[in-house]
Amino acid sequence: MNDKPIVESSSTLNNLAAIEMKGSCYSSQPVLPNQYAVRAGNPGPLGLFSFALVTFVLSVFNVVWPDAPNNALIVGGIFYGGITQFIAGLLDFQHGNTFSATTFCSFGAFWTGQGFLMLPINFNAAYAGDTEMWAQGLAVYHLGWVLFTYMMFGASLKLKKGSVLLSILLFLVGTTMLMLAVNIWTGNTIPKRIAGVTGLLAAFGAWYAGLAEIVVEDGMTFPVGAHNTVVVHERV
């Protein structure tokens, strides 16, 4: 008869200790590994929905009332289209989705800035009342966003997790920014109305893309294009 004591390996003891600690939050008994593991949600739909709503409201103004003030969008622009979308981008970084995280954080910051620009503050005072110079500055600012958006559009065509819908959305957003820049520079309302139309298409496309990412978690699929199927962001 072998009287040698049974010696647990250090790795086994560590694993058991980890299991005990994990189970202690719920029960005094040991639990199986991952029994209480929590699956992280997908922040993508939140970012898409927040972008879609504020883009929809702004685009309606641009199409129907291009000369009317759009200050009704201040709160939504800052908090939902801006801060909420930015948070969705930060969460996407944790999922390892650099492209979508960069896009959400960037446009979240853009919408936060747009919301502040809608505040009843005389930003033009920085240009000593020179409205033409102020308009040129805003136009150049929008052109910078045009370049960024078209750059992301080009990158989306090569993404393994990309889709035709994603590429179309970025192209529409870039075109919207371009038309807004032309409107600011020239004062012509026709480009602003065109921006309203492309913005509405982008908003509806973003809502559709958000729904596609939600339902895929329950085994349903919405067609999004030939690049790839919608990828569920999971982290356990």
Automatic annotation (TrEMBL):
Pfam families: Gpr1_Fun34_YaaH. Keywords: Membrane, Transmembrane, Transmembrane helix. The chain crosses the membrane at residues 46-65, 71-91, 98-121, 133-153, 165-185, 197-216. InterPro entries: AceTr (IPR051633), Gpr1/Fun34/SatP-like (IPR000791). GO terms for cellular component: plasma membrane. GO terms for molecular function: acetate transmembrane transporter activity. It is found in: Membrane. It is a multi-pass membrane protein. The keyword Transport does not apply. PANTHER family: ACCUMULATION OF DYADS PROTEIN 2-RELATED. Belongs to the acetate uptake transporter (AceTr) (TC 2.A.96) family. This is GPR1/FUN34/yaaH family-domain-containing protein.
